[in-house]
Structures are given as structure tokens and as C-alpha cells.
Amino acid sequence: MSAPTRTVAATATTPSLSKSQLAYEWLHARIVAGALAPGARLVLAQVAAELDVSVVPVREAVRRLEAEGLVTFEKNIGATVSGIDPVEYLYTMQTLSLVEGAATALSAPAVGPSDLAAAREINARMRTMLVDFPEKFDPVQFTRLNHEFHSVLFEHCPNPHILDLVHRGWNRLTALRGSTFSFVPERAGESVEEHERILKLIESGAGSEQIEKVAREHRAATLNAYLEYSRSSAPDGGPLASFVTL
Predict the structure, then answer these.
(1) Would you place residue 175 in the very low, low, confident or very high pLDDT band (cuts 50, 70, 90)?
(2) pTM here?
(3) Long-range CB contacts (< 8 A, 24+ apart) of 83-87?
């Protein structure tokens, strides 16, 4: 029996779908990384030319991004990168301070000398960004290193449910494209010093309650810095005016 003949529709659709996925991943990566900032206009023809595809798969990709909340479509303006939702950021950071503090405390007994050395090396790179290149401070890269640092300390968490919640929180922050250090860069130096305090507590065998408290306060301090920035930068305090610091 001869092989079934492929229909014209199937032949035409498959390449279109693959190009749509290509456009989606290309745009998604740039939005999440901050290369396409909130409010940036997405000119479909320009994206299509960049990827050497037609406008159709780019339009399909933009629709997916719109459904995910990463892109907004406005009449007479077109597609633009969505802004960061400050209230969603608040809730994500509040939750992360709780679950990451717990995960770090539960991980502490399993954090060995090699883990501490790795965490200190990352923290040293963060400090170098602030000391040697202050005029070229990259908040996105700093946030990426910050994630790496904390991952070393919480990945040994023996409770898979808590660890899953921590991963979800970090993934949510990535989707929100929120880096507090973009708004309050002065918080970066404080964060590096607080990292060393957490490392010393783990290294000295401090109790889990103390480690959890300090880890939680560290995360809350970053959120509080953003809350203060939000209140001072908006005439009415913005959408976070009614929230108190942790």
C-alpha cells in the first residue's frame, strides 16, 4: 500500500506553526529579559523581517503573548509590551518571602562547604558589579545572580511542596519582569551584605528559626524598598498606597 498523500492544508500549516513558535520564543525571551521594556511597541513587520518570516506567524505569536498577559493590544496603537502589575508583584514577593525563608531554613543542614563557597563566589560577583562598574549597573543581570545565589541555599529543601512554591514564585517574578533593583538600585548593596549574614548563620550552625527569620526579613526588605519607591513616585501613592511594609 502506498503512503497516504499529505493534504495541502497539512503541508501549509506545519511550517506556519513552527515559525509561529519561533516568533513566540524570540519575543518571549526578549520581554522576560527586559530587552523589550514595558510600553515598547511591537511592530509586526519589523519582527517578521528580523526573523525572516511573514507577518502571519508573528501575529499568532503576539496573540499568545497577549493571552499570557505579556502583551497588550490597544486600538490605534497596536501591540505593546505590558507594564508590570505592582499589586501582583507585591503578592508574589510576600509569598516568596514566606516560602523561601522556610526552604532556606530547611535546606541549611544539607548546605556544605562547597555550597557556601559557590554562594560566596556568586555574591562576590554581585559586589563587583556594584564596586567596579557602578555606572554600568545592570539590574537584570544582578537579579539573575541574586536568583543563583538563593538557589544554592534553598535547593536542598527536603520538602518538595515548599520547594515547588519557591520555584513558582521565582518563575512568577520572571514573568512579571520585575527587578526591584531597577527602581531602587541602592537596595543592591544592602542585599549583598545581607547575603553574607545569611551565609554566616548557616556556616555557624544557627537554629532553623533564626535562619528562616533572617532569610524572610531579607526578602521583605527588598519588597519594602519597592513599596517606598512606589509611594514616593506616585502623587497618590499609586496602587500600593494602602499596603503597609512587612
Answers:
(1) low
(2) 0.71
(3) 83/38, 83/39, 84/38, 84/176, 84/177, 84/178, 85/176, 86/226, 86/230, 86/238, 86/239, 86/240, 87/239, 87/240
Contacts of 171 (CB under 8 A, 6+ apart): none
Burial pattern 220-246, b for ≥16 Cβ within 10 A else e, equals: bbbbbbbbebbeeeeeeebebeebeee
Distance from C-alpha of 9 to C-alpha of 101, rounded to nearest angstrom: 53
* Residue ranges with strand state E in the chain: 41-42, 71-74, 78-81
C-alpha 222: how far from chain center = 14
Amino acid residing at 121: E
Cβ burial of 6 (10 Å; 0-12, 13-18, 19+) is exposed
Residue 55 has pLDDT above 90, yes or no: yes
Q: 8-33 vs 55-67: helix axis angle to the nearest 10?
A: 60
Could you identify the residue written with the cell 500549516?
A: 13
H/E element, 245: none
Domains along the sequence of the chain with CATH = 8-81 (1.10.10.10), 86-240 (1.20.120.530)
The CA distance from 33 to 174, in Å, is 8
